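Q: What changes when adenosine monophosphate is included in the input?
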Amino acid sequence: MRLFDTLTREVVPLKPVDGKVFRFYCCGPTVYGPAHIGNFRTFVIQDVMRRVLELGGVKTKHVRNITDVDDKTIRDSVGVGMELADFTAQWRERFHADCESLNCLKPHIEPSAVEHIPEQVAMIEELVEKGHAYASDDGSVYFKIASFSEYGKLSRLDTRELDLGKTQNERANSDEYEKDNIADFVLWKSRRDEDGDNYWDSPWGEGRPGWHLECSAMILKYLGRTFDLHSGGEDLVFPHHENELAQSKCSCGGEFARHWFHSTHLLVNGKKMSKSSGTLYTLADLADEGWSPMEVRYVLIGANYRKQLNFTMESLHAAREALGRLAKAADGRTAPGYRELAKGGSLGVFSGAFERLNEDLNTAAALGELFGNLKTARSLEDWRGFFTVLAALGLTLPEPEGIEVPEEIAKLAECRWQARQDRDWAASDRYRDELAKNGWMVKDGREGYEVLPL
Ligand code: AMP
Ligand code: ZN
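A: The predicted holo structure follows.
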């Protein structure tokens, strides 16, 4: 499989660096509210990447963290008067339920930031020791971006834009900031009143880690110094991933991520779907209006991940129609299991559709090929190919719609029913034979009858 790499700006082949298992990390959700379908555009395309690799015969190790301590989780847990752990646990559960309903595979490891404070402190100590970080008077610790000559390479920052030697403390000391506010970023935040009970001990006094650090520390623990791929939405390229790269390379060396995979934002009314802008839909909002998670998933993969996608209600209608058409084409055939499909083999007339996924995850083109070849699908191989492409996209099909019974057949069935009510068994048998001649049968129940094709 090949994918566009944010670092080199080229489409590159994805091969496990250890020759065995493709190891990748995805920045996970910040659990302070329900994830919106913009977040799920990113999580779903990461899921499709994993599925395409696995169905292509590659083993994977998927690590995705839970951000359960940062400015926002603390602010909102304090706001509602809950302990941070209880507050984040409810949103983590909700996230898991949403992922399951969207048919996303579970990551192999899902570490949480709060459970990895010692690892984060150790990484800061390493950075201080090596001259890449320094403590300020208030007990906070900053990463010195001037100490890392590659800073800005991933997000292609012009080094002239960097405000070397200034700490964010002189500006905002917040976890998130824009490109015009680049400065030494915070690794350890000294304890503040607004943090409530959420602080830990460290060599620099009480406080808590800055947001960017958790992924670096957990990646080192679960994937090592060099791993295959790192992923997130496009908003994470700067500063989050730029900072992770700096911390990790400076503390423990290694190549860090060999490739970077970023998905383009889901928009609504032409603007990024986000909590702060108040323009968001959750799966629950859409379920209230009668839309299934699978219809949402279809919309999210309906456009190539490198293109912006504007979410509309019309796209949900189109998704419903498309899934219905696929279900009708499948005509009651059952899909082989995921493991069975991952054993490989010919995909018949659908091998082109799978190739579209192999080439930079072109989900839109793969769907186009899937529909384009439905009419020519005949052999067992073809249907295996059909279900492999569906499995790669993570789509499951709805039950086929109710069968349409022609009017004359319905009439014959009604006459038969009437004959039975009149205990005219001979007439009833004649109607039954007449129905059978036309390819139909009647199943009697206590309340009435059902007309089915033979
Ligand atoms: P967060 O919970 O804010 O940490 O975000 C979780 C993931 O969703 C990150 O990879 C973000 O980059 C991604 N994300 C946030 N908003 C959007 C959006 N509108 N479209 C696609 N991905 C998004
Ligand atoms: Zn991260």
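Observations recorded in class: Residues 266-393 form one domain.
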